[in-house]
Amino acid sequence: MSASVALRDKSREAEASRGSFREVWLITLGHSLTHWYPATFYLILPIIGKELGLSYSQIGLIMTCQYLAGAIANVPGGILVDTVGRKGMLMALSLFWVGFPYLLMGFSHGYLMLLSCVALVGFGNSLWHPTAIPTLARRFPERKGLVLSIHGMGGNVGDALAPLAVGSLLAVLSWREVVMLNVIPGLVMSLLLLVMLGTLRVGAKKARPDDEGRIQSLRDYFGGVAELFRNRSLVLLTASSAFRSMTQNALLTFLPVYLAYEMGYSPLWVGAGMFALQAAGFAATPIAGHLSDRMGRRSIMMTSMFMTGVVLFFMAFAGKSQAFIAFIAVLGFFLYAIRPVLQAWLLESTPKNMGGTSIGILFGAQSLGASVAPLVGGMIADRYGLIATFWFLAGTIVVANLFILAMPDESAAKSA
Fold first, then answer.
1. Distance in angstroms (rounded) separating the CA atoms of residues 340 and 135
2. What's the predicted TM-score (pTM) here?
3. Which domains are seen in the chain, by residue range?
4. Are 23 and 200 in contact (CB under 8 A)?
5. Distance CA 395, CA 1 (A)
């Protein structure tokens, strides 16, 4: 009888695992759309800049407003995730909130209205990662790096396909028509997440408590916050991530501008260049995630960051030559590989019941770094030329790597 019960329990666990992996793909698809919209905006940003007669600093300030709003909202978003626990509903709300402001943007004709719309996008994005990432990590505790890399690949897909699709549409439609059409896939995906994952909670009965955590009261929650901020690994990883985000988001802001303004590329070819950056990241993400599960997070992080700095130095040297284009794909391979590795390392270093807040703090720090870099990069470009911005970005990724050097031993982090 006991053998029969054990076999039945094992069968149920296998079925739950298959079901949860189906949820991995659904959440990954939703993640791709949270990246699709910003990737669309990066492509139309040079067009908006010319239409409104904006300087490089004003273009950078647009992205600064978006990421500053995200920095403000990420920690409250993490609190909401750890105390409410309705994962499916929160992910659906986040995706809707990311896409809808771009529709409003299509009706705006002033700079201040544009800044308000991108700030709303930043608020919406603050809910996705604190919800999705701890959910996936808890369901696959032994394969965090791989599962989070699959989730990260969804972001790469959105980042890669949006410039190609939107670049093609811009050949026949205005940018305002494109952003209005673009809201449809986000609305459809939001409804799909709400229907299929709307009842997904932390601590759902079908999930094991060790994997899913618990919904906790506000009193219990705030009792753990002070301890969380004393966690050395959390401080170092978030600081490193903030500088890495400075590199990534200033690059995403000014690489399309450089290709359009300095190299004279059409929107279609600018989109192709951005596709190359993201497609290389798509290829690198699962490799880095799997290797980090086997070889350790530190070695993968440091290697990828070091190579990112090297490639950015070569891009600054290459200038307007064809070699600059070739380096874009190489840069994407190393720059995007470490996102899931960083997230997995953070979740291993912090308490399970604070996963949403830990990721919220991480993405809050990233948004803060991302908010500073485009404005600083724009000011550097206005004063010294756009190529000087790439020297600045190479320096930020070097600083990010220095924080990883100071990280505690990984075995100690895992035991914690």
1. 14
2. 0.66
3. 16-202+226-415 (1.20.1250.20)
4. yes
5. 65
